[in-house]
């Protein structure tokens, strides 16, 4: 796929992942695209390395499914990291739980 296809895939998948997680993700469109692209790469790599699923092209269903799953995973990690950095330390973070 070309760079424009990666950006489009990243944007669409990032928005889908953000929607699936509900209101938890509070970030802009650039972060959404970057997480979507990174999620597509991560999902494609995991699918091919561990499950033998080949992600071929832009319109292939396996490409979209693995990209969405990878983006959701990265978005969850991003949420955990950014929610911790907003507090004043570990004691306050544990107190909220």
From TrEMBL:
One of its GO terms (cellular component) is plasma membrane. Keywords: Cell membrane, Membrane, Transmembrane, Transmembrane helix. It is found in: Cell membrane. Its main location: membrane. It is a multi-pass membrane protein. The chain crosses the membrane at residues 27-46, 58-81. It holds the Pfam family Transgly_assoc. The keyword Chloroplast does not apply. The keyword Membrane applies. PANTHER family: UPF0410 PROTEIN YMGE. Belongs to the UPF0410 family. This is Putative membrane protein YeaQ/YmgE (Transglycosylase-associated protein family). It comes from Herbihabitans rhizosphaerae.
């Amino acid at each position: 796929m070309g760079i424009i296809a990666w950006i489009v895939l990243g944007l669409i998948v990032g928005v889908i992942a953000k929607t699936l997680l509900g209101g938890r993700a509070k970030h802009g469109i650039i972060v959404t695209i970057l997480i979507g692209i990174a999620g597509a790469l991560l999902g494609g790599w995991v699918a091919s390395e561990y499950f033998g699923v080949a992600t071929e092209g832009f319109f292939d269903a396996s490409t979209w499914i693995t990209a969405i799953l990878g983006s959701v995973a990265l978005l969850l990690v991003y949420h955990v990291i950014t929610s911790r950095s907003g507090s004043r330390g570990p004691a306050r973070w544990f107190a909220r739980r």
